Each structure stands twice: as structure tokens, then as C-alpha cells.
Amino acid sequence: MRMPKHIWLALVGGLAGCDGRHSWLAGAGAEARLIEDLFWPFLIGAVAIWTAVMVFAVIAFRRRPKGSDERIGRAIILWGGGVLPAVVVAALLITGLLTLRAMASRPSALTVHVDAEQWWWRVIYETPDGKVFSANEIRLPLGKTTLLMLTSDDVIHSFWAPALGGKLDMIPGRTNRMTLTPVRTGRWGGLCAEFCGAAHAQMRFEVVVMEPDAFRDWLVAESEPAAPSALRMERGLSLFLDEGCAACHTVRGTQANGRVGPDLTHLAARGRIGAGLLALSDANLRRWITHTTDVKPGVRMPSYPAMPPDDLDQITQFLMALE
Ligand code: HEC
Ligand SMILES: [Cu+2]
Q1: Assuming Cys at both sites, which of 117, 126, 133, 274 could form a disulfide with 111, CB separation 3.0 to 4.6 Å?
Q2: Top-level CATH class of 110-210?
């Protein structure tokens, strides 16, 4: 039988998704490796048991019944259908629980709060000098354990950065804890894994794993107010304030201190906009501002389709200067 073309296309398309950035087989985190250690024995055990059951089934079909069969049958049901599954399931449960405990009990060097919002991520780093606000990108130091405090401001979301570790629900009024210990530098993908409304599929983030020194420098830079070169762009800044952007967005060092949307103080230091949707670029910022609701249907930011081109230039330049 020939397989229809669209099935092949679906299979190839599915494989194309295995880019490693979202794969727990990438081995980018100590916690992901614990899950991997659990996965292979589960898989091999499941295949072995399935094969044995199939072999017994085929034998049972082919054999002619004999007088002693009933006694043997009872023994198979007792041992194969009762005792063995009980032992296997108990063993799986115990190893699963031990893995869960191993994942949750590492002492952490850093605490990061992640608040899920429809449909983006508020990220707050705890430092000795206070809190550092960011969004949609989580930076972590290599080889150190970070405690993530996960919560939500509206509905239930779920935090998942597969390359680094497990998946955990983010529930309003509750703080769930997860630790991540990255063991490979790089940019890894993350996403919301619990349906949370219209733009759920566009609710992504990036985890950037950095060498500890580079991370420390980045965190200091992130804690600073906006770059002086941006603050000198008077026209762009005043448009940002007058167009109402400031009611929803914070740019530290200016009067903009809205909390409805992502902190934009260091927007241009991030790789993407719209919670992972578009690469950061001049053209994409324009598109985002003038066609917000087309680019991300359901988004909690109004579109500005009628903004005069000159004003759009000024605001975009201002945003691109927020390094
Ligand atoms: C009513 C509140 C509101 C107003 C007004 C508003 N925004 Fe937003 N903005 C948001 C929200 C909410 C998001 C997050 C959207 C998402 O990704 O789902 C956002 C996202 C953004 C982003 C992407 C940030 C990131 O890290 O992904 C940029 C850039 C941005 N807004 C710029 C502007 C500009 C410029 C204006 C004014 C012309 C403006 N916004 C007006 C609420 C607002
Ligand atoms: Cu979601």
C-alpha cells in the first residue's frame, strides 16, 4: 500500500520540529538529564513487556489445547497478570518519585520569579541590590542552580523549557517552585504548555544560558536605567509617553512606568519581540506597533494602524536604542 503524500509531509514536518532547541534530549540541563535517565529504562521496559505479551499471544493462538492448560493458565494470570505488574508499577513509582525529589532538592544560587500573563512572561531577578525586571527571556548562569518561582496573574499557564528540565503549572494565587541547572550554554526554547486563551500558541520565551561572568555583567547592565543614548532621543521618548505606550510599559529612567505589558527598558538587548513571535528588528517593530492584533490575534495591546510614518520612525528608533 502506498502512503498518501500528505502523511509523508506531516511526518517530515514533524521531524523538522526536532531542532534540539526544544528537545529534552538536547541534554542542556541537569534536570532534563534526570528525566532522560528515567525515559530510557521506561521505554526499554515497555518495549520488552509488549514484545513478551505479543510472543505469548501468538503461542497461545497456535497451540492446540491440552489437559494441563488450565493449571498453567491460572499460574500465568497470577504471576504475569498480578504479581509482575504490581512489582513493575511499584518500581516505576518509586524511581519516579526519587527523580522528582532529586530535581527539587538542589540548593540554588539565584532566584528568578516568572509571572505568566496572557500572553507573555514577566521575569524578575532577585539580587542583593533589589529586583531586576525583564520579560520574555530568561538568562541563566551555566553550572549554577537557579530557583524559579512560578506564578500567574490571570489564568493557569504552564512553564516548559524542555531542553533544561520538567514542566510545571503556573497557577494564580500559588507559587510553584522549579530548579534549573544548565550544563550547556546556548539559546534554548521555552513555551506555555497549558492552553490559556487565544494567543496561547504564541506564548513563548527564550532561555539564554551564559558563562557565569558574562551572566553577572549582563545582570548588572539589565538593572541599569535605559541607555543615555535612548533617553536623549527627545522626540521618540515624548511620542512614547504621549501615545499611551507609557501607561502599559516601563522604561526605567523615564516617566513610563506602566505594568500591564513587558518592561521595555532593555528591549533591544533581547532577541525577539511579542513573546518569542518575531525577531527583533526595525521592520518587525513597525509591524508590531501598526498591526499588533494581526500579528498576534488576541493580544492585550492595541494596534496603532494610523500612526503617522514619521512618528513611527521616531518611536521605532527610540525602541531600538533601548539596549
Ligand atoms: C493597553 C496596554 C498597552 C499599550 C497602550 C501599549 N502596549 Fe505594548 N504591549 C502590551 C502588552 C500586554 C504586550 C505583550 C503582548 C504579548 O506578547 O502578548 C506588549 C508588548 C509590546 C512590545 C513587545 C515586547 C516584548 O518584549 O515582547 C513592544 C515593543 C511594545 N509593546 C511597544 C509598545 C509601544 C511602542 C506602544 C505605544 C505606541 C505600546 N506598546 C502600547 C500592552 C500595551
Ligand atoms: Cu498557554
Answers
A1: 126
A2: mainly beta
